[in-house]
Write a sequence for this structure.
């Protein structure tokens, strides 16, 4: 039997926890206060997916590796699914207005539409809508 996890917890280092919380709140994300403290905030992405944003010193307690310098390298690309093209544009525009940086130009592949941004700490977020109906017609 293949392994299947019930939840996903993404751990991300941030330089300023309060600024990061405010940034993601401006995008519409909520936080679970039960699993948050002065060093870590538990951001709810959906029912079973969470991003634990934590100050760099706290993050360093979980790894012996150096924290990636996101100004010159990428440690991962976090991809969020959207309900439609408009939601893709709305989320990326909110991120840019809240201080995020562009990562990619909008990309339209017919059945799939996506656009990306970098958060305040340079983590890469892609937002993608996939039209499954159009996909099956190709």
């Amino acid at each position: 039997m293949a392994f299947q996890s019930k939840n996903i917890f993404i751990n991300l280092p941030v330089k300023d926890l309060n600024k990061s919380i405010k940034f993601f709140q401006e995008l519409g994300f909520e936080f679970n206060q039960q699993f948050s403290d002065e060093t870590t905030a538990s951001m709810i992405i959906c029912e079973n997916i969470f991003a634990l944003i934590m100050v760099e010193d706290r993050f360093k307690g979980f790894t012996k590796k150096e924290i990636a310098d996101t100004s010159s390298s990428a440690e991962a690309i976090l991809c969020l699914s959207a309900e439609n093209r408009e939601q893709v544009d709305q989320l990326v525009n909110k991120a840019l207005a809240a201080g995020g940086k562009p990562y990619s130009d909008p990309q339209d592949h017919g059945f799939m539409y996506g656009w990306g941004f970098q958060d305040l700490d340079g983590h890469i977020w892609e937002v993608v809508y996939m039209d499954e109906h159009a996909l099956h017609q190709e």
In short: The radius of gyration is 16 Å. The mean pLDDT is 94. The first strand starts at residue 8 and ends at 14.
